[in-house]
Structures are given as structure tokens and as C-alpha cells.
Description:
Distance between the termini: 82 Å
Radius of gyration: 29 Å
Shape: globular
Number of strands: 21
Order of helices and strands: HEEHEEEEHEEHEEEEEHEEHHEEEEEE
Number of helices: 7
Amino acid sequence: MNITKFTAALIAFxxxxxxxxxxxxxxxxxxxxxxxxxxTMPPKLDARDSFTPALMLPGLSATKFExxxxxxxxxxxxxxxxxxxxxxxxxxxxATLGLxxxxxxxRNPDGQVVVKHFWYLVYRVRDMGKSLSYEEVVEETGxxxxxxxxxxxxxxxxxxxxxxxxxxFSLEGWVLQSDGNYERVAHADQYLPLVAKEIQKLEDPNQRxxxxxxxxxxxxxxxxxxxxxxxxxxxxxxxxxxxxDFVSVYVRGLTNAYRVQQAGNGDLTLKPxxxxxxxxxxxxxxxxxxxxxxxxxxxxxxxxEQTQICKHYQLPGPQIRxxxxxxxxxxxxxxxxxxxxxxxxxxSSPITAELDNGTLPEALxxxxxxxxxxxxxxxxVKPLVAGLQWEFEAPLNGETRRFVLRFEPQFWEKKDxxxxxxxxxxxxxxxx
Length: 432
């Protein structure tokens, strides 16, 4: 063999050997995901989550006093009902690969192999610096006075507690009983580290998936919106009823936002902001591992089934929203909202019925008062569009102000004999 042929053969051998060596090396980077595989639920900041409306301070008992020269707002009772408590809030970005199932075999001490069925949700959490905060600013009025101004995305990670999270997952759905009725069941995510490792092997061996306790100790770096960074985890459920359908996964802990509700007896209830991710599973228990769990809700044309879907996914109904009218600029500001209490059987609402009769419902009046606008109990409501829009006037800080009330759907509305779903219902943010 001459030198030229020997050199060519050597080069070919080296090329083949190097390619075999490259193919033999295990991948170290997580595999890229195809477009649309990862479903993202971006942060949804709402200024109403960042302050507590004017409520009676707990533990303070003040008698209402009607003076001849002192307005109620200047009395102890009036001032104690007009205290706003501001707070900084943060909100993380959440994404998921969907709700899936896996079967694993485990060997008992006696040597027998037992096959168990699990549901799981692989997810990613990112801190993109989304926050609302407040700052005391000195007013340029020549007197010693300050005002509170809102700031967006100005919190550092240490302030927002955005570097650590402790998410809680609840898998909830409905199971059809033998009598034809549905029963609601709920499962909390479980600590199953061995199962989490097997899921990681199945999904992507190079993408570390933290279990429910490990992820609490992981620092989540702040990233840009177009970044692929973030921390990955997995929520696992065991012994899920095989007949489960109309499924929702509720995720709490992605934000510190909450709403405060006050009952008629003065008791306060804190309702954390929660992510609700909806799925549905056409199938049965016979070959459940092959049943694909789909995003969103089933879209049907039958009015009866549409009503059942609204109930199964507990979709919030229309609201009555109250606006304060500002003549300057001819604008309105949303100040309160209350459930319209629409009956899905006939789509009637006792709230709208009272408003059409010229009366302000007690619950709606309380919601407006809790927002810091004490309009009293004897206001006269004027219907503008029956069942849809009303207005009334009430004294506010020494002047008469106009309030506008509107019936506004959130996620669904009545259409003909059935229901029209207004927007995609893959996920929604609720308070519970």
C-alpha cells in the first residue's frame, strides 16, 4: 500500500472511530421541546391583590356616632373602617408538559412484583421579576404629607421571596357513580421520590425533576421572558380513582397574592390566588394508561352537557361590577365586584332582579362598602338596561357621586338555549 492510500485509509478510520465515539457519549443537556409542547401560564398581576380593602380593624370595637358638626368619616368608627393595608406581591411564571400517567412495578419483600398506577404533572417555574410594590412619596404641596404610589417589577429577589417557592398541588375531578350522579374527589400530591426518579428517566434523564420537598430548597434564578431557564419539578399522585374525569389541578404557592372576604358577622377569610389547570380524560379503567389526558374542557353543543361542564369545572359565573364615575376625563374606575348568583337551570339572578326593582342588594352594598365607599343602605337604583346595567348616586366626601353597575360575564355566558364559553379555559386564576 502506497503512502497516499495508507493516509486515506487512516483518515477514514479516524473519522469513523470519532463518529462512533461521539455517538457513544451520553447526552448531557436536556432535550429541546417541540413548539407547543410546553404550556405556559404567565403571571397575572392585579392591583386589587396588593391591598386589603377598608375593613373594621380586628379587635377594635367602635360605636357609630352621628355628630351635628363632625362627619362620620372623622369619628373613631369612621376612621377604623377606612384603613387600607398595602402589601408587596410577587408572581412566578408556570409551565407544564401536561397531566400524564405511568405504571411501575415494585418488588415486595416476599419477591412478588406489584404494579402500581400513578398520575403526574411535570412543570417548570421561573422568576421573571413580576411584582407589585408600594412606596411612600412626599407630596409637593408645601405641607408634610405623603401618598402611596404603586411600582411594577421593582422588587429584588430577596424582597419578593422570589428565589424560593413551596408549591402545593391538588388533583380534583368527578367520578360517575352507579346511580348516574357524579361525586367530586380530591387528591393531594404525594412525596414519592423513587417514582419521581423513574418519571425523570422516562421524560428526560438529563432534566432534573425535583420532588415536592426538594424544590423548596432550590434557588430559582431570575430570568428574562424569552429565556428557557427555570427550575423543573414533578407532582405525583397515587391511587387515583381510575374513573376520574373532568379533572382540574390546583396549584398554590406561585404568588403571595390573596383576597380578603368578610362575612356578615365580621369574620375574615383569606383566599390565596390559585392556578386552576383544566383537563379532561375520555376513557375508562380498562386501559387507563393508554387514555390521553387532554388540556382544557370538552366543548359540546348539548345545553345540558354545557351546564354540567360549568359545574364540574366550577367555572365562576357572571359578576356585578361596580364602577365609580369620574366627570374629569369621563372615565370609570372599578371599585368592587360581586357574584351575580346566576342559576344554571334557568339563568335567572336574584341580584339583577333586585337591581331591576330599584333596590341595592345587601351583599352588593357590602362589597362596595368593603372597598372603602360607604354608600349606605337606602340608595335608589335606576335601571339603564334591564338585567344588564344600572346606576345610583350617593354622597361621598361631601359631594354626590355617580356609581355604575354592570352585569359582566367572566368565562361563560348564556347563548340561545345553551352556553357560550367566552375564552380558552385551559387554565384560569381563581381565589380559594
